[in-house]
Design brief:
The structure holds two protein chains of two kinds. Chain A is α/β, with parallel strands linked by helices. Chain A contains twelve helices and four strands, in the order ββαβαβαααααααααα. Chain B has two domains: about 190 residues, Rossmann fold (3-Layer(aba) Sandwich); about 60 residues, no CATH class. The chains are: A alpha/beta, B alpha/beta.
Chain lengths: ~375, ~270
């Protein structure tokens, strides 16, 4: 393309094609011309132009706005009938029309986050109340869940998680044992390794470790499964068949995880103690009998009870959050991904909040919790 | 006959060792809308996948825009495919991106155009498909017909020489489907694009197709205009265009429960 100047006007002679490959060059040329002082009118000469595509049309449209803002004029000349038809495709922009949504400020986005969190919490509590109402229906009114579903869910959620919970618990016991031994050796009190590992595993690490593994493994799987079902309208299909998805799909998962959570926690506590015992025997030279005897002495049944009731609450939290995220999914495949991630993040966060609350409550309430 | 934009020579297409279509020899003409027609399982989608580079042919040569498609390396094939657009059956829009971002994606990835020009091009294409004002919605927040129109705007954003459409009107009501057909026709006329439309909707074919290629039983049954194929004496073609039900639909009567309980069956077997 060639630029011919004549005093306060210029003529851009377009030649050959004005397509994707040439549009950038025209845009740069017109942008430069719009900034030149003393230049008032620019004419685009179409006489030698053969092909015009939508990128060329868009460049002319954008340039006309740039010229107008700069107080200059942009004209076209020698436009053929087909080129005119193509140029007419570009709808005129309404004044102040912006293709981007307005930018949201920090305080506005903070407020938006607060409001959406409030809505989310409200929806979660509504969902939990719906679950509880379905639960009373199952217990007192004889409403049915699918036959064998609880066992099926318990196997999927729990039995398959057994190896990873077992391995993690032994390793946590080992690490706790090492840390305790390193500190206690200074005081010649390595015999207390068993006390420290035993009580920590029973009250905190057993339920928390199991909870985190369940949230990452089972909570996300629940959210993904229910979310996919929602995307494929399977939940709507159940409703139109007169089956409540909360009873038909969510409750068996809740029962399954409630059975499995405390069982896995018990396993985790025992295996954590075994991990500690390995350190006790091989690192601080305690005999296995002594280690076990001291553990039995140190760990009160209330400690195990504390871990068990917390694990029950954790299981309900993980299950209900997983189901809630799955049922609340919006959008297609990406929605499933978001729901899965949210179920893990929310699950682990709520787990830690519940753990802190439970431990504080037990401390305040005294010996029986 | 105008210039061929796609040529298939002695092509066998299928999956693994399973041949779905055999000995396909056909040319698609530039500037025309060609409908690939056939019943379910006739191999329409298989042929389309072979033409767009997703399914290498078991045998034969596919020439797309004068290039031997499967002789090109990955980079060259990617360059070639930029000159084409594809409208998928369910739109295949990215759910986490807005309609605007979906349509702008090929421009951002394949051109160095300034953002203002990209926005203007997206606005123009969305206005042609009648979706101005829905730029910032997510695909999940618009109707099925609107989603397909967004997908069409995306397929056409680089002004491709060919647009491939896989079942464009599937799942749409007749009015929305007619609207989409009209938009496809408009794109073809305005931008002189060639189109290959896979469909089994007779109404769409009548509105859209300049030329029809009908597939059945793993081979091309007929090529011609809609009128020519409607009057075709070949049984498969005649049955398709006149909606004749297939032979496998039973009219009852043979070896039915009624025969058994009424004693008819006993009489028949004893008589043998």
């Amino acid at each position: 393309m060639e630029v011919l100047r004549n005093g306060r006007s210029a003529r851009v002679v377009l030649q050959g094609d004005l397509q994707l490959a040439q549009s950038r060059e025209l845009y740069d040329k017109l942008s430069k011309l719009s900034g030149e002082s003393g230049l008032e009118v620019v004419t685009l000469d179409f006489e030698k132009l053969e092909h015009l595509d939508s990128s060329g049309i868009a460049v002319i449209s954008v340039a006309s706005e740039i010229f107008s803002e700069a107080g200059k004029e942009l004209h076209v000349e020698n436009v053929s009938a087909s080129q005119q038809k193509a140029l007419e495709l570009m709808p005129a922009r309404e004044p102040n029309q912006n293709l981007y949504p307005p930018r949201i400020g920090t305080f506005e986005s903070l407020g938006e986050w607060g409001l959406s969190t409030r809505d989310e919490l409200r929806a979660y509590f509504l969902f939990v109340s719906k679950l509880l109402s379905e639960l009373t229906g199952v217990i007192f009114r004889g409403n049915k869940m699918p036959r064998g579903s609880v066992i099926h869910e318990a196997v999927i959620i729990g039995v398959d998680a057994f190896p990873i919970v077992a391995l993690s618990s032994v390793l946590i016991g080992l690490v706790l044992g090492f840390q305790a031994a390193d500190q206690l050796i200074e005081f010649g009190a390595t015999v207390y390794v068993s006390n420290l590992v035993g009580v920590s595993m029973a009250r905190e690490f057993g339920p928390l470790m199991t909870g985190i593994i369940l949230a990452g493994r089972s909570g996300s799987a629940i959210a993904a499964e229910l979310g996919t079902m929602k995307v494929q309208e399977e939940l709507d299909a159940l409703r139109t068949m007169g089956l409540e998805p909360e009873r038909y799909l969510a409750l068996p998962k809740m029962f399954g995880i409630t059975l499995v959570g405390p069982s896995l926690t018990l396993l985790s506590i025992v295996l954590g103690m075994v991990g500690g015992m390995i350190i006790g025997v091989f690192y601080v030279d305690m005999s296995p009998t002594l280690y076990m005897a001291r553990t039995m002495e140190a760990v009160d049944p209330v400690d195990v009870w504390h871990g068990m009731w917390k694990s029950f609450i954790f299981a309900w939290l993980i299950g209900s959050i997983g189901c809630f995220c799955g049922f609340r999914i919006e959008g297609g495949a990406s929605g499933v991904g978001r729901a899965t991630t949210r179920s893990v993040v929310m699950g682990i966060f709520m787990l830690i909040v519940a753990d802190a609350a439970g431990t504080s409550l037990a401390t305040v309430a005294g010996g029986w919790l | 006959m105008s210039e061929a934009i796609i040529t298939l020579e002695d092509v066998d297409a299928g999956y693994g060792e399973t041949v779905i279509l055999s000995n396909i020899n056909v040319e698609f003409e530039r500037g025309h809308i060609t409908a690939l027609l056939g019943g379910s399982g006739s191999g329409k989608s298989t042929l389309l996948k072979t033409i767009v580079g997703l399914l290498p042919p078991i045998k034969g040569k596919v020439t797309l825009l004068c290039e031997d498609l499967y002789a090109l390396d990955m980079f060259e094939r990617a360059q070639l495919m930029r000159r084409t657009g594809m409208l998928y059956q369910y739109g295949a829009l990215f759910g986490s991106r807005t309609n605007f971002e979906n349509v702008a994606l090929p421009l951002r990835e394949h051109t160095n155009l300034p953002e203002a020009v990209i926005r203007e091009m997206v606005r123009m294409k969305l206005s042609i498909v009648g979706l101005e004002g829905l730029e910032h919605r997510l695909p999940a927040d618009v109707s099925g017909g609107q989603r397909k129109r967004v997908a069409l705007a995306r397929a056409a954003i680089l002004d491709p020489e060919i647009i491939f459409c896989d079942e464009p009107s599937a799942g749409l009501d007749p009015i929305v489907a007619a609207g989409l057909d009209e938009i496809l026709r408009r794109f073809q006329e305005l931008f002189e694009m060639s189109m290959v439309v896979v469909t089994h909707e007779l109404e769409s074919i009548k509105i859209l197709a300049d030329r029809v290629i009908m597939l059945a039983d793993g081979e091309i049954q007929a090529i011609g205009t809609v009128e020519e194929l409607t009057d075709s004496p070949r049984k498969k073609v005649h049955d398709f265009f006149h909606r004749v039900p297939p032979d496998y639909i039973s009219d009852g009567g043979k070896d039915s429960v009624f025969e058994r309980v009424s004693g008819e069956w006993d009489r028949k077997t004893k008589g043998k």
